Amino acid sequence: MIKLGITGGIGSGKSTICKIFETLGVPVYYADDRAKSIMTSNAVVKKAILSLFGVDAYFRNGRLNRAFISQAVFQNPVLREKMNQIVHPAVIEDGRRWQEAQTADITLKEAALLIQSGSYKELDYIILVTCPEEIRIQRVMKRNRMNRQAVVARIKSQLSEAEMKEYADWIVVNDGSQSVIAQVLKIYRQLKAH
């Protein structure tokens, strides 16, 4: 089994690339989505988040107050690091269990913080999705209904594309100027030829 990872900054289009891989029969583990689920379903994680942020971290119905937490962690790097120390190990373990249950020749783990969390070390190859920053800003403003300043703060909190390129085995350019399907098919064929 080939274990692929895919990463890229917010708004780069990781999910779009993952959907193409899924149509090729590659199962995808969406780490960011799983993290959201784990933060409400894992009692140990939930207790640690409450301890770090207080009762405002969750709504009365048990749902995570994402707006409250996002604002707190993106303004405070120390708080962000503490949050990552709570969530990343739980997501990495969840990803391992998912991986063990897979039977496909190729699997794909999608995570914005694939490199920062250290989970890239458990993968065979890394795909980086790149896109010019202005396009990413516009995408995220539209998708997440965020203002420009909030999106830029998120981008600045992540590794730069240049830093991520050092870990990448393949780069998919998702700026609308070239076919992402053709780029994914090329990678897929190279992997199948292994």
Mind telling me the C-alpha Rg?
17 Å
Shape: globular
What is the tally of helical segments? 9
- Biggest sheet: strand arrangement: 2-3-1-4-5
Mean pLDDT: 92
| DSSP, total strands | 5
Helix content: 40-55%
Report the uncertain regions: none
Report the end-to-end length measured between terminal Cα atoms: 11 Å
Hey, roughly how much beta strand do the residues contain?
Answer: 5-15%
Query: What string gives the helices and strands in order?
Result: EHEHHHHEEHHHEH
Q: How would you characterize the largest beta sheet?
A: 5 strands, parallel
Which structural class should the secondary elements be placed in? alpha/beta
What structural keywords apply?
single chain; 194 residues; alpha/beta; globular
Outline of this structure?
The protein is of the alpha/beta class. Strands 2-3-1-4-5 form a 5-stranded parallel β-sheet, with helices on both faces.
Strand-helix topology:
Layout: E1 2-7, H1 14-23, E2 28-30, H2 31-41, H3 43-53, H4 66-75, H5 77-100, E3 106-110, E4 125-130, H6 133-144, H7 148-157, H8 161-165, E5 170-173, H9 180-192
Parallel strand pairs: 1-3, 1-4, 2-3, 4-5
